[in-house]
Each structure stands twice: as structure tokens, then as C-alpha cells.
Amino acid sequence: MTTTPDQSHPGRPRRDPGSPPDGVSRRSFLGFVIAGTTLTVAAEVGGAPPASAAVPTAPQVAELYDLGDLQTHSALPTSQLIRITVDDHGLAHFAIPRMEVGQGITTAASMIIADELSMRVEDVRVTLAPARPELVFNQLTGGSNTMESMFTPIRVAAAVARGALLQAAATALGATVSSLVVKGGVVTAPDGSTRTYAALSGAAASSTTTAVRVELAPTSSFDVVGTPRGRVDALEAVTGRKRFTMDLDVPGALPTMVCRPPTLNGSPRSVDNLSAVRAMPGVTDVVVVDTGVAVRAETFGQCIDAVRALRVTWAGGPVEGESDDTVLNRLKAAELPMAVPKVPLLTQTVDMRFEFMFRSSAALEPNCAIADVRDDHATVWAGLKAPIVAQRNIAKALGLPIAQVAVNVVTGGGSFGHKLFGDAAIEAATISRAMGKPVKLMWHRADEPRQGRTHPMATSRIRATLLAGEVLTFEQRHTSVRTDFSHGLGERLTAMAAELPAGLGNLGLAESIFTLTQELPYDFGVVTQLLDEVDMGFNTGSMRNIYSPDVACANELFIDQLARKMRKDPLAFRLAFLRSERVKACLRKVAEVGQWGRAMPTGTAQGIAVHSEYKGATAVLVEIDCRPETVGRQVRDAVTGPRVTRAVIAIDAGLVVNPLGLEAQMMGGVSDGIALALTSSNHLVDGHFLEASWDNYFYTRQWNVPPSFECVVMPSDASLPGGAGEAGVAASVAATACAYARATGTVPTRFPVNHGTVSFTPKTFVPPVPPSPTDGLAHTY
Amino acid sequence: MAQHTFRVNGEAVTVDVADDVRLLWVLRDVLGITGPKYGCGINVCKACTSHINGKAFNPCSVQVKDVGPDDEITTIEGLPDTVGADLHPMQEAWLERDVAQCGYCQPGQIMAAVALVHQVQAGGRQITDDDLDGIRNVCRCGTYNRIREAVRDGAARM
Fold first, then answer.
1. Which GO MF term does the entry hold, naming one (chain B) (predicted)?
2. Beta bridge partners of A283
3. What's the whole-number average pLDDT of chain A?
């Protein structure tokens, strides 16, 4: 049987055959039909454009070569291992080497495959691939890069499958390939005879692995891609059938929790009552590990009781005695000096400095993992965005060869950067080995803000010089507690060093990532944006974007002040100085939809802001109500405060696979932005964070939600998707901050704006978790 | 250990577990009913919201000894049966609006929404913005606006 694909994409309807091909027009790609009894294909993608050899002074590095490019290019050499199988039920299977955490990539991948194969989305099964070390750099979910890096490889694999199926159909139906029509997984010949993919799968299979060259249809011919689709897992989600890590039934993996230290990253010295706790109801095991004292019991409730009962002596940890102010002082001392170039006399200088507090990146599903560690092998189940790195770290912790550690990737109950690290998986494996039994490890909610990953505290200083209506210079010095990139991004950067644009060579890892992600889309003369970091031993990570929400918030607030100095309207000022037409288009759109400049009562105001990243652009307009009657409204155990009453977001994300999913990501981005600007932070006091649950850590709740939300997906002629998952956050936090400044007449310089008020009684640090209440039946409704 | 008998999703169950174990863990760890999720364990996040005798409650904050043979617990798994259909109208509204993102909070959100609508309808009222503002369930993905739309939509179908 031949596997040569037809070159003309038979049976594929063209929406507009007269229009010139757009996007990936007639580029040729190599794929494979893999030996087997059912049709399995693989894609190899090559010929990516090289990075620019040199970077001119403007535009900035990230405009020419950004973090997404780094990830996409580092994934290329192994992309041939992306495989799709069509089985004898006519179902297409694809184990995506990425993690679904709610961002919708399994839905988008199903749509791409269904489109290329002219089959129903419902007949595509996208699962999450376990850790596959041979994929090297091609199994990291982050940087809003999945669609950008996977779009073409998935299309190529699907196109190879289509070619093989059609060739088999041509043989079976006695017709030429070019005369066949495919719809809904059914191939029809000119005489009306048909074959289903189910029937063709075996015949299309190959006994040898064969290279095949395919061309991709122009993006204008998409039928499914670009149309709004509900999530493929929506039914499972609303019926409670969707399985997360803690819902898995692994034999013998009993509930397990850890009694954690009262100070951040402290460690256990001794336990006074091990035998008494081991004898508690339901408790099966108690062991001391590096991170605390682990207990395993019949139920998580009994784990909580045992954790609360443990009497442990602790060593203090690396940040013992530190507080918000001491960390801020360290940051201030590390701030790099400004270096304003020589500017003419009469030049006006504007200086501002902003502070951003620690924030918890915890998802609603707490850190959790199942581990079954035996003498010579281990199996782990967890939500992992970088499973290869986790697998390596687990193997190292257990002293096992990597090949003896199976790491299964489970769909996550949110991530926001939190699941980039295998903290819970490594800890579960360590505990399982110490106990000699399988464990289902769950972090208590209180453990999350107190011991889990945070977005690091940071400061941003900006200085600009103005003369005669022009901005001559714009300097930014971003100073941050060190962000942990040990989830694999750092390795990518090192491996790709030779491919990176000139000018990055002398920068360290974090500074390089900063440079690769920052785009100041304005014509502000000489622009310098520099990062400096302070390493203090905090548990940090990216949090739905790395630096940009803070950087954009500082920049856009600053830009409102520049506009004020020049007596210009914030919108007019931005339109005058923006150099990107895509950003301008988004800005004009939100101004129009949100009726920028409409009359509003005293104490309320609009704010407007933009951001440019992930091969795309966003603009956000919000309206905020800071009147006393609103700010003072009372909700039990909650922070109310200023209310964003309206949000309008416009997103240009390049080629859009699923506009419904993109809108969902923008909605989440706005919710995050509001929290970052107004309510959500961790307070560091005497070496520990005060926050211990959602009644302390004030993520956006319904009483903070803008009653009016609109998202406009901008048309784009881009041939590839940009990023979506994190794209909505930066402009949202910035617009909210700008609106707050305009409504109150005071420019906030510390975020979130309510950080100065601790509005709750901190829960105990010893014991480290609160008891579960018993009065639930008094609160029914 | 002690035996406790109550009803879950239309069936009588008897479990052998200590009196003070919270019902959430009886459901999840003993009975394997995993629709109700853990998000805080202190009746704050509401991810475990289920119904007892038709009213919303949070099993993370109820000891198993406090429910008896006549108490009917309904989790998300049993919600469709309360209307004798494959899906409850609120679940249909949820699908229509593609509300879920990661999905972790969604069983609790839906159970809370159904109870809220029952409460509002019993008072002869329509769902208001204030009612929606009063929903305490955390959604860390931030799909709050779609939740608001779906609750109104679900109420119209109920």
C-alpha cells in the first residue's frame, strides 16, 4: 500500500477559491506513516525561519524574537514524534505532549485535527502524554505557547493521515484520490459509493515506516478552526465525571498530608509524639521527611486531625525573621541606577516607583500527587506542565534510573504557573518510599499560600524625559525577588544560546527571559528596560505570565502621568505614541465599545491600557466605582472595596483556533487583573506568610466581578496562533490601576492597593492547618 | 469506628467510620463519590457544595454522625435524577454557555446555583445582580461572568 499523499487536498471545500492563499500557503512538510496495524502517522516540521542575526536599536528584542519563538524553535528538532492514530472505530487519537489545565488546548487540538481530517470534533480523542524524555524540549506547557508551537505539527500529522486514508479509499472505491470527497469521516467517490475512516484505518496502515511529503491547505480553507466550540470536556466537568489527580483510584494510595513548619521552608528537627499520632483513628503511617512530617490515613479528615496533633520541633528556614519591609529594603538596595542619556536643557524629567507584593499562584485544586514507589521502580500521577523535568527530579530523589520512573500527566484543576514545578510529585514519591506504600498526597489549602510558590515581590522604577511634546527617553529598572525557572525554560535558553539574537549573550537567565518577554509598544526615544534580581530563598515561579502584569501596570500608570504632564487625554496620548498598528486597533476598539470619555459621576472613572506580547496585542477599558457607599459595602469574611463595574477587552491573538475558548481566557485574565490591582497578596511577617485560605487571600469573587464584561476578538490575517492563556492579565491589571488613579485622584504605587490593611485574623501557625468546622448544617440554603 | 447510615443520590448507604469524620471525606475517600471537591476544608471555597434534603450545604463542615437514615444527600452525580432527566436544566445552561474552564469548582458552582434559584423562586422573585454577587464559590480560573449568565439562564429553564 502506498503512503504517498495527494498534493491537491481532494475533497476539501474551499470557502473562497478565488482569494490568494494566505498564511501557510503551499509550504511543504515532511511526515511519516508509522508501521503498524492501524493507521498511525507522525509529523516532522522543519525549515523554521532563523532568528535575526542582529538586533537593531529599535524595535526591541521581543518584537523580533520572543519567548514563544524560543520555545517553538527549541521544540522543532523533536516534533517528528508528534503522532496521530486513526483506529478501526474511525476515532482519531492524539496524546498531546502538553498539559490541559483549563486553558482549552485539548479542545483546540481536537478542532485542528477534525478540520484537517474532515471529521467530527466529537470523534477526536486528545489525551495528555505521560513524561516522554525523548521529547527533550517539546513537553513544557507554559508561556502561552501551546498553540503557537503545536499548531503546524498537529496539522502536518493530520494531513499525512488524511493522505493515507484517501489513498486507501481510492483503492477500495476504484476512484482517483482527487475525485474523492470527505465529510464527517466518510469518504465518497463520484459514483456515490462510500467508505468510512473506520473501515479504511486498517488498509491505510503501513507495514513499514514511510516518509511522506505533504502540503498544508491555506488557512482560508478551515471549516472548524476559527469557529466557536464548547470545550470537549464540558459534559464531564458539569456532571462531576471529570477526573483530577485526587479523584483517581490507585490501589493502596491512601490519603496523605504533611505537617509543615511554621516558617517558610523550615524543616523538622524532632517529633515528640510520633507513637501517639500513629495510634490515632485511621492513621496508618507517620514519617519525617525534609519538608515536614507526613501522615497517611484512611481519610483526609483523619490526616488533618493527625497533622494538627503532631508536636514537632522545627528549624527556622532561610527567611526566618524576614518581613515585607525587609524584603522591600533588599530590593531597593539592588535597584540598578538610571542612566539618562544627555538631554537638552529645559527637558522635564518624570520619575515614579512602584511596588508589587508577593502573590500566591495556587489553583483551586491544591498541590497533589499520587505516588507508588517500589524498590526498583516508581509510578507517579500528577498535574505537571514540565513532566520530563519532574521525572528527572523524582528519579534523582529516589536514586532510580529515569527509565524506571513512570510519570503520568493528569488534567489539572487550574495552574496559573503553579504546576510548572513538580513539588507535590517529588514530595509524594519521597513519602511513598519512606512509608513503603502508595500515597495520595494533598496539600492543605493553608499550605498553599504559606509554603507554596508565589509570584515574587518586585519594584519597578521608571524615569522619562520630555521635551516639546516628545518623549526623549524611557528607562525602566525592574527589581524582583528571584523567579525560579528550574522547570526547564532555563535549559532551553542555554541550549538555544547560539540561535538567540545578538545582544542577549551577556545576560543572565532571568535577564534574558525578561528581555525576551518585554515589548514597550511606544515610540519613546531611547528605551531601556533592565531587570535585577535578589535571591532570598523564597518559593517562587511564574504566575499567569512572568514579569508583564507588574511591568505593564507600572508602565501604563506612568504613561497616564506623562499624558497628564502634556495635557493630553490618556487615549489620545497612547494613540499618538504607539507604534504598533495591532495594539492601536485593539485600543481603538475598546475605546469605541467602552465609550471612552463618557461622563461619569465623581468617584467613578474609566481606565484604559494596552499590552503587547505572545505575538499579539490586548487593550482593556474598565470602569471603576470608588465611592464610599461602594467601597464600604459589607460581605462576610470578604474584601469588597472599589468595584470594577465594567470591563471591555480586545484581543488580537493572531490566528484564532477557538474564539469561545479565547474569550474564556480573556475573562479569566480580567478576573486575575482585578485581583492583582486591588485585593490579592500575601503578607510576609516574621518569616511566614499570614494568608492561609480563600478567606485571607482575596482572589476575585462574585462581589468583585464587573457586572458588565465584553470581549472583542480582533480579526487577524496571521497564519499562526499567538498566545492566549496569559495574554489577558497585563492590560487588565494596568487598566484597573489607571481607573483607580483617575477615580480617586491618587496614583497608587503599591499593589494590590489594599495591601496595607490586614483585614483578617491570621490562622495558627502551630498547628499549621485549621480544624474543619462542624457547623455546616447551620448554614444550609 | 461506628456505623452510620444515610442516603446518597437516592440510595441508602452504611459506612463504618469514626463519628467525627467530615462528610466530604466519607463521600470521597470511603464511598468514592468524587464530584464534590476539596478546595479549603473550612467552608470557605465552596467547591464541595452538595445538597442535604434539597438545600445547599458543605460536607467539609459536617460530621458524619450528624446525618441520619432519613437525610438525603445529593451530590453533582445525583443532580439529574432530581429532575428525572439526563441533565439538570442548570447543567444544560452551563453547557450552553461553555462555563467550565478547568472544571474543578464546577460541581460546587452548579449545586450552589440550583439551591440559589430554588431559594429565589420560593420567594417569588427573579435572580438579581445582588443574588449573583452573593454566590461565595471561588472560581480561580475567573469564569465568573459566564457563571452569572448561566445561573440566570438555568433559572429560566427551572
1. 2 iron, 2 sulfur cluster binding
2. A297
3. 90
Which residues in chain B are classed under CATH 3.10.20.30?
Answer: 2-76
CB–CB contact A237 B100 (8 Å): yes
Cell numbers describing residue A140: 513544557
CATH 1.10.150.120, chain B: domain bounds: 81-157
Which of A299, A664, A779 has its CB closest to that of B143?
A664
Least confident among A1-15, A303-317, A621-635, B84-98: A1-15
C-alpha atoms less than 13 angstroms from C-alpha of A366 in its C-beta half-sphere: 24
Cβ-based neighbours of A626, under 8 Å, separated by 6 or more: A603, A604, A605, A642, A740, A743, A744
CATH of domain B2-76: 3.10.20.30
Closest approach of B85 to chain A, Cα-based (Å): 12
- Say how far apart CA A144 and CA A166 lie, in whole Å: 35
Answer positive or negative: Cα dihedral of A573, A574, A575, A580. positive
Strands A39-44 and A28-34: antiparallel
Whether the predicted pLDDT of A275 surpasses 60: yes
| Digit-coded pLDDT (tens) for A216-263 | 988 888 999 999 999 999 999 999 999 999 999 999 999 999 999 999
> Whole-angstrom distance between the N-terminal and C-terminal Cα of chain A?
66
| A4 pLDDT above the threshold of 50 | no
Distance CA A645, CA A211 (A): 57
**Averaged pLDDT, A683-705:** 97
Confidence at residue A219, expressed as pLDDT on a 0 to 100 scale: 84
> Using alpha carbons only, what angle is made at residue A304 by residues A299 and A309, rounded to the nearest 5 degrees?
125
pLDDT on residue A207: 87
Give the tens place of pLDDT for each residue, A256-271.
999 999 999 999 999 9
Q: Quick one: pLDDT at residue A64? A: 64
Q: Is B64 on the interface with A (CB under 8 A)?
A: no
Burial class (CB within 10 angstroms; exposed 0-12, middle 13-18, buried 19+) of B65: middle
Contact with chain B for residue A376, Cβ under 8 A: no
Greatest distance between any 2 Cα atoms in chain B: 47
Taking the whole predicted model, whether its pTM rises above 0.80 is answered as yes
d(CA A776, CA B60): 8
Residue A625, SS3 per DSSP: strand
Cα distances (angstroms) measured from residue A766 to each of A292, A309, A311, A450, B20: 13, 10, 9, 13, 22
In the block, cell 508561556 appears at A143
Q: Among A707, A689, A705, which Cα is nearest to A697's?
A: A689
Name the 3-class secondary structure at A455.
strand
Task: Give the cell for residue A352.
Answer: 515614579
Tell me whether residues A781 and B25 touch, CB distance under 8 A: no
Q: Which CATH architecture has domain B81-157?
A: Orthogonal Bundle (1.10)
- Chain A neighbours among B 16-45 (CB < 8 Å)? 17-18, 20-26, 28-30, 32, 34-45
Cell of A644: 470594577
- Contacts of A20-24 with C-beta under 8 Å, sequence gap 24+, read A21/A218, A21/A220, A22/A218, A22/A219, A22/A220, A22/A717, A22/A719, A23/A218, A23/A219, A23/A220, A23/A655, A23/A717, A23/A718, A23/A719, A23/A720, A24/A152, A24/A155, A24/A216, A24/A218, A24/A219, A24/A719, A24/A720
Q: What are phi and psi of A225, to 5 degrees?
A: -60, 130
Strand partners, A616: A613
| Domains of chain A, start order | 28-239 (3.30.365.10), 245-318+367-442 (3.30.365.10), 325-359+453-751 (3.30.365.10)
**pLDDT at site A60:** 66
For A690, phi then psi, to 5°, come to -70, -30
Taking alpha carbons only, the member of A164, A158, A89, A84 closest to residue A126 is A84
CA distance A33 to A576: 54
Task: Check residue B32 and report its DSSP letter.
Answer: -
